[in-house]
Specification:
With about 400 residues, the protein is an alpha/beta fold. It folds into two domains: about 150 residues, Nucleotidyltransferase, domain 5 (2-Layer Sandwich); about 190 residues, ATPase, nucleotide binding domain (Nucleotidyltransferase, domain 5, 2-Layer Sandwich), CATH 3.30.420. It contains 16 helices and 14 strands. Strand 1 and strand 2 form a beta hairpin. The longest helix is centred in the last third of the chain and has 22 residues.
């Protein structure tokens, strides 16, 4: 039987996406999502043979248990499908200075991913769990695992974007610079926008907003990334599920010197206890909760308003990098694709640029639907569901052709 399918494992900070697909004709034979990891009512949804299944599989589910369920409860029922798998593609968030493009995974690559854990402590360890699960459960594919890097998209960043205003030798000696994240997603949706707008990718000017448990915004000029909100690590930038995003660095000194917190405790607070979770005083990191309670709950209002305030500032700043021509704003990711409230608030704060939202289109463009949500004859505002799995599969098969 012809082996022409790619298994994709896309492991996020609070989710695991998986898919088996043909990267040439783009057909998906199996795909699914485990979400709400590490909080109540962890849930799995998967589609196979045109049947949609959904199941709550416990509370506070870990990535390891999610992998176990996927492989033992789903993959084992699709053995004939898995006999057609050519290779396994893995999303890896941070490649650092050494991994700049998609690469077949070997011992060196694994060590480099481990080395870069310091730059992506929430993601690289989880990406490694996906790689380890693949090597364990699919030993016959052990030499056919590929790392597709989120940071690869950002190697076009100009020096004015990727350097921090700190002593230059900290960059030249230690690699301290802006690396970005969500590059696979931003690349995919900007490609789709190029097709929708009928503009050559090499001439495309867009601002792409990937909004989810992890959130980032990227500005693309003439098909190349010019700046992005995430930095040395995925901690910088927008307000996220549990990550603080931008803060005054002196807050860390204050917490250490005046409050007596250790650096380990401060790191844990900024990565795991901040963002939406921190703003709701520990109630939830799930954006759906604060959106559903926005009209009645002041805590939810605070969290949504701060999230939108930060994003609106970034979009406004990034328009200055496009030499007066913005072809579109793109919303993607779990929040970007589904939160009509966030999109409405954001666009209302960008009215100075002539952006206007069509409320009817905004309300109807959710749950996998794509399209324009702007008023006629105004700057295009696009909702484009991301498809990182397709890019990962296409990058993977390139290395075996």
């Amino acid at each position: 039987m012809l082996k022409n399918l790619i298994l994709v494992l896309n492991c996020g900070s609070s989710s695991v996406k998986f898919a088996v697909l043909n990267p040439i004709n783009k057909k998906k034979y199996l795909f699914g999502l485990v979400e709400r990891l590490y909080i109540s009512r962890s849930m799995i949804t998967w589609n196979t043979k045109e049947i949609r299944n959904q199941l709550v599989i416990g509370d506070n589910l870990s990535h390891e248990k999610a992998f176990h369920f996927i492989i033992n409860k789903i993959f084992n029922c699709e053995k004939s499908l898995f006999s057609r798998i050519l290779a396994v593609g893995h999303r890896v968030v941070h490649g650092g200075m050494s991994l700049k493009e998609s690469v077949i995974i070997n011992d060196f690559v694994i060590q480099e991913i481990k080395k870069n854990i310091i730059f992506s402590p929430l993601h690289n360890p989880i990406n490694l769990l996906g790689i380890e699960a693949s090597l364990k459960y699919f030993p016959h594919l052990s030499k056919k695992n590929v790392a597709v890097l989120d940071t690869a998209f950002y190697h076009t960043l100009p020096e004015s974007s990727y350097l921090y205003a700190i002593p230059y030798n900290l960059y030249s000696k230690y690699g301290i610079r802006r690396y970005g994240a969500h590059g696979i997603s931003h690349f995919y949706v900007s490609q789709q926008a190029s097709n929708i707008l009928n503009i050559q990718f090499q001439g495309l000017n867009v601002i792409s907003c990937h909004l989810g448990s992890g959130s980032s915004v990227t500005v693309i000029k003439n098909g190349k990334c010019m700046d992005t909100s995430m930095g040395l690590t995925p901690l910088e930038g927008l307000v996220m599920g549990t990550r603080s995003g931008d803060i005054d660095p002196a807050i860390i000194f204050f917490m250490n010197k005046e409050i007596g917190m250790s650096l380990i405790d401060i790191e844990d607070i900024l990565i795991n206890q901040s963002g939406i979770l921190g703003l709701t005083d520990g109630i939830t990191s799930d954006f759906r909760y604060i959106e559903n309670n926005y009209d009645t709950d002041t805590i939810s209002q605070r969290a949504v308003n701060i999230f939108c305030h930060r994003l609106a500032k970034y979009i406004s700043a990034y328009t200055s990098l496009l030499d007066g021509r913005l072809d579109a704003i793109i919303f993607t990711g779990g929040i970007g694709e589904n939160s009509t409230l966030v999109r409405e608030i954001i666009i209302s704060r960008l009215s100075i640029f002539g952006m206007k939202i069509n409320n009817e289109l905004n309300r109807s463009t959710r749950f996998g639907k794509s399209g324009f949500i702007n008023k006629r004859n105004t700057i295009p505002i696009l909702v484009i569901p991301t498809n990182e799995e397709l890019i990962i599969a296409q990058e993977t098969i390139k290395l075996f052709n």
